[in-house]
Amino acid sequence: MLRRSYVTAQQLAGFDRYKYNAVDTNPLSVYVMQHLWNRIVKIVPLWIAPNLLTFSGFLLILINYLILCLYDWDYSASGSGRIPNWVWWFAALSTFCAYTLDSIDGKHARRTQSCTPLGELFDHGLDSWAISLFILSWFSACASPEGTPGVSVHTMYLSLIVVLFNFMFSHWEKYNTGVLFLPWGYDLSQVALVAAYVLTASVGVEIWYRPLVFGYYITAVLMTLIIGCSIFLSLPQTLHNIHMAYVKKTLKKDSLYEALLPLVSPVILFLLLTAWVALSPCDILIKQPRLFLWMVGVAFSNVTCRVIICQMSNTRSEPFHWLLFPLAVVVFAAITGLLGRLEESILTVLTVLATAAHVHYGLCVGRQLSQHFNIYTFSMKKPVQE
Fold first, then answer.
1. How far is CA 143 from CA 71, 108, 155, 269, in A?
2. Within-domain flag for 113
3. Could you tell me which of 40, 102, 129, 349 has the fewest CB atoms within 10 Å of its CB?
4. What whole-number distance in Å separates Cα of residue 355 and Cα of residue 298?
């Protein structure tokens, strides 16, 4: 099952030459959170593998998401009292713990002298999936039940796309500059998300349906900030860093085409998904919001993971992701009415297959790199040489 070789020999050779290079200028991270993480990491036993910390954090996020699925599958439970209060407390705790584990895994790797390209890829690969789980879980607190001013499913879709592209741009930037400029929005969003869950648990979800100032609701302000910061802060910063690399003649790509290549698949993916949302005969996003948004997160995660591999191995990004072809067929059949009443069923099948393919991809890549570097993914022990 796990014999598929997704990482080429050229990419494996590129991983051998890879050196981690990141810049963190976020004041919240540098002056506040780093001091906390430096204390916490000292508590972690030295025999625990850094990847185990990373994966444990991801599992907490996934468990939180699945609990909310159980109580609020169609994003209609907010404000109805169907979600127990303990769920919001658990969401706050799991989000904070996941944020902590994701922040100390690299520190623990340096502390135990176990830094490898596999660890960085494992970290960023899971982050590319977790980023959608964070926002899809939060939607359960502020979704728009009938007759309330909460966040509509179309706003959810737009917000999710903006956040996913924001994450993608960070790694596209590194693909071109060789430096990962850590986005300011990550630490700010994590702290804000924990605070929002605590507020929800303490006051109730009703807080998100009350006007804040001038008749504007808190949810509308938050969504505006998310989209605004991404478009007017993160993207300009990314373009500025790429421009400065061009000025200093340190760009890793020698043509505009090669520089933009990683963005081809995400843009086509966005256009196909948006066409499906806008032209679906049965309003697929309204009928199956949880399923559709999950599929969006999985698809973008797989596309991003492949870009991260190319970026770390200094190899050329593929122009077209394989998922685009079956997705294009499904979208065409859906919007032309060929699927008829089968549209929701086909979405289910497509989502299951995309998720299975993504998990298989992660397992195979992890196996390949662990064998290449002669290490275990979740253990500090060294494999016995045959």
1. 13, 38, 10, 25
2. yes
3. 349
4. 6
